[in-house]
Amino acid sequence: MSGHAVVVGGGIAGLAAAVALRRRSWRVTVLERRPELSEVGAGITLWPNALRALDELGAGARIRALGLAQTSGGIRDDRGKWLSRTDTEAMAARFGDGLVVLERRQLLDTLRDACTGVDIRLSTDVAGVGADGTVAISPGESIRGDVVIGADGLRSAVRAALWPAAKVRSTGMLAARLIGRVPDPDGVRGGESWGRGDYAGVAPLPDGRLYAYLVVPVTAGAPDEPGEALRWWRQRFASWHFPLPQLLAGVEPDQLLRNELFDLAPLSGLASGRVALVGDAAHAMTPNLGQGACQALEDAVELGACLASGATDIERHLETYSARRLPRVHRLAARSRTAGRVAALHGRVPATIRNTLVSLVPAARALRALDPVVGWRPPAG
């Protein structure tokens, strides 16, 4: 017998979990503290594992139609010299899909549209959560679920209630994200570029616009005021290769989204009683592998599979979910953090050695190294 699932958080992780459970005949209520469903960020890259998860959620075809399949990629230095090239055709042959890039809001909108029959309650603050499935809603109201899913992000209220020792860690890096245009978008090749302490990436979007991110140390002293901040970022990346300076030149201050990068120290488990965590609430990781949202989508599919039998033996099924997910997300979070440190190496000698070593890795070996990252398959049944 299927029961009632309360999902705290209406972002990508929360809506994906809602879709997964609804497809297993659960009654689902989503609690979102904001007055509307919205996603902070600019673009998003979906790897083959995320596309498989979206297929399981019934949204894969729409996302492929909305996004742009990347036909090139790799790593360059800040002057544009290629250190490593990604063979996207070989990737698609190996994993069944390549990379698809779209706006984050398009992914959220697609998941929202898939939430048929889901009760989404906006402007709803969660004041507390009990391991028995009770969710306190401000002021003075509560809701009870057979299962509660914490999908409320890095600063999760659900995690704070039941995992009070969890530790959010700064990476010491500050990111800026933007979507813009340049005069010759057809000449843009996607990928990441490494400087000495800074790094950046760019990816074409379907309508000719470009999504870009730029990352610098927090200690670099970027100002907070939007106009001053944009001038600072323009100057910081003025000597970098096309199209990064051109993109920065063409945007307005409010188009530059800036945030310090954090991750979550590994948790000992993702379930407590009738409560489970998904997405950033469970395993916030740095963006260096492009796996944050991808892992949230995997979480949703795995959770749905573990709860396929309905509202019986909830705690045992959630422990199964935790046991399945924990080793994988811990490995990927650690690998992502290491990748961020490598990309942010500063100093001429360390950066030169890094670039030389990367350029010596054969393309086939680099592709095989992605197996543990994107080789995930949905559970059978």
UniProtKB/TrEMBL annotation:
UniProt xrefs under Gene3D superfamilies: FAD/NAD(P)-binding domain (3.50.50.60)
Q: Which domain of life, per UniProt?
A: Bacteria
Record's keyword annotation contains Thylakoid: no
Sequence ranges assigned to domain FAD-binding in this UniProt record: 5-335
- Entry's Gene Ontology molecular function annotations: FAD binding; monooxygenase activity
Q: Which UniProt keywords apply?
A: Monooxygenase, Oxidoreductase
Classification via InterPro entries: FAD-bd (IPR002938), FAD-dep_Monooxygenase_BioMet (IPR050493), FAD/NAD-bd_sf (IPR036188)
**Does the keyword field hold Protease?**
no
Q: Which Pfam families match?
A: FAD_binding_3 (PF01494)
Signal sequence span is: none
SUPFAM superfamilies with a match to the protein in the record: FAD/NAD(P)-binding domain
Q: Which PANTHER family match?
A: MONOOXYGENASE, PUTATIVE (AFU_ORTHOLOGUE AFUA_6G14510)-RELATED
Q: What name does the UniProt record give this protein?
A: FAD-dependent oxidoreductase
Origin organism of this chain? Amycolatopsis alkalitolerans
Organism lineage reads as: Bacteria, Bacillati, Actinomycetota, Actinomycetes, Pseudonocardiales
